[in-house]
Amino acid sequence: MDKSVLNIDIREETGKEANKKLRVAGSVPAVLYQKGQKAISLKMDARELFHILHTSAGENVIITLKMKSSDSDKTPQKDKTVIIKEIQYEPIKENVLHVDFSEISLTDKIEVNIPIDVKGEPVGVKTDGGVLDNPLKELHIECLPTNIPEHIILHVEELNMNDSLKVKDLEIPEGVTVLSDLEQTVVSVMPPRVEEEVSEEDAAEESQEPEVIGEKKSDESEGGEPTSEAKEAKGPKKEE
Q1: Does 199 map to a domain?
Q2: For residue range 91-114, what is the model confidence (pLDDT) as tens digits?
């Protein structure tokens, strides 16, 4: 995988207000995380970052940070080899708000997610009217930074109705270890959903509410006369 170079400055001012000023000036705030060392606050040109993110490697691009010293510390800074750990995007315009970098060694394996690129139209969709379901769009893998694939290609042309392909069916490049569940479904061809039509008669029957029959009073019989139990409760009738 090719490496990209990004010029970056150490920033001394941090916080929401300082970050807002950076973005207005065309810069993006960032943080560099290093093993066993304190994180470093950085800033970079938004346009340079945009070009790096739009290479074929996407967000898995390996970056060499050309770090400039801060105004208060003129000590020369060594270049850092990093990979993007996390990117925060503005929800509407999708501008980059913040980036987290993680320093890596090209000789140590790392964990990343790579996209699964589904190719073709299944037979079950083309001839039988099925629907292609693609619940898994990324694969979690482990490999050396220089062996990170741009994507995993999955051809689905031969899938018939009710066929599916799982993670274990993917062709994985040499040197790459899959960490995702091997039994997880990547794609499947499902029958189209058919909504049951309700007839007018069925709809009319469903709309009719059942007749509610009230309970009879406990001290009256069906004819409206007091029951024998009620008479006994009231006692014998007095003779006139």
Answers
A1: no
A2: 888 889 999 999 999 999 999 999
